[in-house]
Amino acid sequence: xxxxxxxxxxxxxxxxxxxxxxxxxxxxxxxxxxxxxxxxxxxxxxxxxxxxxxxxxxxxxxxxxxxxxxxxxxxxxxxxxxxxxxxxxx
Length: 90
Hints:
By secondary structure, the chain is mainly alpha-helical. The relative contact order is 0.16. It has helices at residues 4-17, 22-29, 33-42, 47-57, 61-70, 80-88. It is elongated. Helix 1 crosses helix 5 (61-70) and helix 2 (22-29) packs across helix 3. The chain starts with a helix and ends with a helix. The chain is built from six helices and no strands.
């Protein structure tokens, strides 16, 4: 399951790939660079802010989410609880 940290990590990777600095992102978002650094360090941002970041990166949110999901390791086996849930679902 993806976490906020995974999403922030993907955003940071996209910034690096786009050769965009925190200062560049701050300018695009109309924020101070220190606020951008704090926001990404804490992982505390609204969905509308994530959407603004995606626009600044010229990236669709669905593509960002796909990259987060693709970075997750695939499970090779289910937990006992998951197995019970599957068996119980007729």
